[in-house]
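Side project, low priority. Logging it here so it doesn't get lost.
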Amino acid sequence: MAKKKKTPLFQVTDYFGNLVVLHEDWWIGHILDPNEGHPQMVGYENLVQRVVHDPFEVRLSTKASTGAVFISDVGVGPSPEGIRVVVGYPSITFEKGGGHGTVITAYPIDLVRYSTPRIGKIIGRRGR
């Protein structure tokens, strides 16, 4: 049986210089899933792309051992606090660039519901 080819929704160079892809089926079937995902992200795929490329801040992911959380500026997206985009990489060397990654999830920041976010230390920030 032939493997179904995944269609990229977008590819973008991230903050570190890696090529990051978001597949259309993952965006629709996982991230926007009305039961388990973040349906409020409908229509924000261009924002997700921009945040991966030019984030306000990047932190280590605590969910993906070789991942990063890209954080937008406040006041953008479906939440006044902005959005976060989690990208997984196949290697811990992603901070050196030249590799590749995949968007795992994207969601609006909710400081009321999650006042203590489960994200790691800062590894990048705009203007530094």
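Brief comment: The first strand starts at residue 8 and ends at 13.
Revisit when time allows.
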